[in-house]
From TrEMBL:
SUPFAM superfamilies hit by this protein: Glyoxalase/Bleomycin resistance protein/Dihydroxybiphenyl dioxygenase
Pfam families in the cross-refs: Glyoxalase
All residue ranges annotated as the VOC domain in the record: 2-129
Secretion signal, residue range per the UniProt entry: none
Name the UniProt record assigns to this protein: VOC domain-containing protein
Domain of life per record: Bacteria
Gene3D superfamilies: 2,3-Dihydroxybiphenyl 1,2-Dioxygenase, domain 1
UniProt xrefs under InterPro entries: Glyas_Bleomycin-R_OHBP_Dase, Glyas_Fos-R_dOase_dom, VOC_core
Length: 132
């Protein structure tokens, strides 16, 4: 048993795809036409870190309630954790790409960590080892 997908509500598909693939280096696994439960067109968009089992379903906000959740899906807490092999290289690449870091890198007992925001404003921890 494993978690296959976690839904992440976004404003629009294409900027979110660009952020997760170009900036974070995820793979675009699927981008297919689909329908909402009531028959309206939507897209089924899945991104996943290379070689990972669990991916993100990028779901465009549908309606007022979902629009309010964009960027605040975990009520201001860090809700997503991206573990990378080379923390320093990933951090520098993300800074160069314009990613907003809320907290600069620090060293903890488990390794390095820095808090960043995704394209929607959700809080993520960048985690890994490496010298700063």
């Amino acid at each position: 048993m494993h978690i296959d997908l976690v839904a992440l509500i976004v404003d629009e598909y294409d900027p979110a795809i660009e952020f997760f693939t170009r900036v974070l280096g995820f793979d675009l696994v699927e981008d297919s036409a689909s329908l909402t439960n009531d028959g309206r067109p939507k897209r089924w968009v899945v991104v996943r870190p290379p070689n990972a089992r669990t991916g993100l379903l990028l779901a465009r906000a549908d309606g007022e309630r979902q629009s309010r959740a964009v960027g605040d899906q975990t009520a201001g807490r860090v809700g997503f954790f991206l573990n990378v092999d080379d923390f320093d290289a990933s951090y520098q690449r993300m800074v160069a790409a314009g990613v907003t870091f809320v907290r600069e890198p620090r060293t903890e007992s488990y390794g390095k960590v820095a808090l960043f925001l995704d394209i929607a404003g959700n809080r993520w921890d960048l985690l890994g080892s490496g010298a700063a």
